[in-house]
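Changelog note: in this version the structure field was regenerated for every chain. One regenerated record is shown below for reference.
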Amino acid sequence: MAIRNLGVDCGTDYLAAGGTEGNGISFYNNLGSETLNTPSPPYVLMKGDEVQNVTILLKDRFSPYHGLLIENSYNPTVNNLNVWGGVHGVALKTAGGRFTNINVRDCCNYHRACCRKYGLYSS
C-alpha cells in the first residue's frame, strides 16, 4: 500500500467535532493481530508499503496512539514524514526499509521513534 501527499488530522478540533481518537496511520501485519510484535510461521511480511510527503496530527503528547505504525513489513519506504503528538510518535517494526526525513515533535516517548528490524526469514 502506498500513501502519498496526505495530511491526517486526529487533533483536538477533529475530536471536538465528534471524531474518534486513534492511530494516525497503521500498516500492521497480515498475520492476525495489531499487537503481534514478531512474525510467526509462515513468515509472510507485507511488501511495498510506502509513506511519502505525509503530515500526521494527534490530539496531544499523551494521546495513547501512534502517529505512524508499520509492523511486519518487508523493506517499506518512509520519506518526508511529519508527526505531531501521540505517546509513541513513530513505530517501525520491519525487515529492512528506507527511512528518510522523519520529523517527530511533541511526543511523550523519550525517543520519539521505535525501530525494530527483523532478520530475514525463510520457511
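Spot check on this record: The first helix runs from residue 12 to 16. The two ends are 24 Å apart (CA to CA).
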